[in-house]
Amino acid sequence: MSIEAKKQIIDVGDGAAIPRKSDRGLFTAWRIAFFGAIGTISYLAYSKPDPYLEILKFVPDGIAVTFQVTLGAIVLAIVIGLITGLGRISKNRFFNGVASLYVEIIRGIPLLVQIFYIYYALGNIVKVPAILSAIIAMAVCYGAYMGEVVRAGIESIAKGQREAALSLGMNGRQAMIHVILPQAVKVILPPVGNEFIALLKDSSLVSIIAVADLLRRGREYASESFTYFETYTVIALIYLIITLFFSKIIGVMEERVSVNK
Hints:
mainly alpha; MetI-like fold; disordered N terminus
């Protein structure tokens, strides 16, 4: 008697879990956490305007900087990841070797060290603004992870797809652009969404190089008012609301893509 194991996809990342309606437990937990965080921060601001409301008035520009760093880094990371992923599957030994070396080196160095290196170490050679250094460091770091996501997504497409495209008169490049990559996008969307959320949370590390993001602004307020508990409570709730909001958006996008498959 043969027993056939059922294949399961293990989806574990640094970001918030993506809520899907099919997973009722997680979807319910998401709603409790999201609306609970909004309700808590609203209650605190209403019941104790000083300091909670004052904190909320102080940090919006920090939220804008956080989004600026996150969006800039994720766009650049996707570009780097696409190039790296194609290099990882390339039959050219040079390009494959360079892409593989990049992935191994970058994934082996903590993100905070990379931020320090680009801002302080390379800053002795080329002066780069703090916010640009932060975007570059995070993009280089997450580009390595994106490269593996792209590689896995491309390799998940059946080889028959490429062979069919070649039989229709396409060359390898055309087959990749018009046949393979469009199908791979549907596969890599969930992990890219997870990387985006993880990057959003990791953007708090850039405050260490004086980038005035959400955490940095909170730290400035706390150091002036000595309301450390209240300030970091608000900061934590804001991060929670933002990450849960985007996890829901990514979940909706994923469901729509799966329906259109």
